[in-house]
Amino acid sequence: MNATQFLSAQEAQAFGKVGVLFGGRSAERDVSIMSGSGVLAALQSQGIDAHAFDPGQRSLAELAAENFDRVFIALHGRFGEDGSLQGALELLGIPYTGSGVMASSVGMDKITTKILWLAEHLPTPKYAVLNANSDLDKVAASLGLPLIVKPPHEGSTIGITKVEQAADFKAAYDIAAALDDSVLAEEFVTGREFTVAVLGTGVNARALPIVEIVAPQGNYDYQNKYFTDDTQYFCPAVLDAALTAEMQRIAVQAYRSLGCEGWGRVDVLLRVADNKPFLLEVNTSPGMTSHSLVPMAARAEGISYEQLCVEILRSARLKMKG
């Protein structure tokens, strides 16, 4: 028996035939392959009958023909984390991990997420929605410089630019607009960067230990996220008990307010000037690579990578009644 195996043969068999969905067609395909490969190996190490399935290379008809009893979604970005795949799985009647159609769609849209958070009186940086006719000088005056420009439907910091001078705003807009129909400009908050992993659903949703991210020159970009060892992580984050509890509270409230379930990760900035937390975004299908933050937070609570994968898989279900 594998030293890390904790499921009995009977428990493993109870999951049935499991598909691990990874790869896909989004800009985050490479990261998804890393995440899914790790999840697949972890589930197989527990004796679970798990199989790889890449929706970027195989059709929904092939997915249906596999007769999976449940699937673990390890896709990131569009066509996997945005509700489209979740809707297909509901139609096919295949139980799946993570959030349902609506929460996945809303969580993938940073603008709609902000609107809902503000309606719940949750703190998030000021913002403006841009299009080709926007008065960028007016937006810069309103939000202040520096500011952040991003495509609202991408992840992994893809297409994000920090604008230090007004003259650079148009170029930053063009980068984001090449990836998305709308563009989000956001107030830049000078602060420490944290993430809060959340497991569970509804009243049972709970926050894991907080991770602080300290990237080189404060630049937690795609390269520093996945491909270097220069970024430092502190988990549990060094914060006083009251601030830790408050950040975990608003992260869980942010997760619940969108209707998220199963698992997710909420990114938070802590403003240096006054230690006020600001919510940035929620990830409804977070990374599960060797550098990823949800597994790191789970380890700090004594949950191994394999245990985490099994717990998430156990929560797989169809969300729509009918």
UniProtKB/TrEMBL annotation:
Pfam families found in the cross-reference section: Dala_Dala_lig_C, Dala_Dala_lig_N
SUPFAM superfamilies: Glutathione synthetase ATP-binding domain-like, PreATP-grasp domain
Pathway: Cell wall biogenesis; peptidoglycan biosynthesis
GO BP annotations, alphabetical order: cell wall organization; peptidoglycan biosynthetic process; regulation of cell shape
Superkingdom of this protein's organism: Bacteria
Positions that bind Mg(2+) 2: E281, N283
Domain (ATP-grasp) ranges: 114-314
Co-factor(s): Mn(2+); Mg(2+)
E.C. no: 6.3.2.4
InterPro entries to which the protein is assigned, alphabetical: ATP-grasp, ATP_grasp_subdomain_1, D-Ala_lig_Van_CS, D_ala_D_ala, Dala_Dala_lig_C, Dala_Dala_lig_N, PreATP-grasp_dom_sf
An MF annotation (GO) of this entry: D-alanine-D-alanine ligase activity
Cofactor note (record): Binds 2 magnesium or manganese ions per subunit.
The protein, known as: D-alanine--D-alanine ligase
Gene: ddl
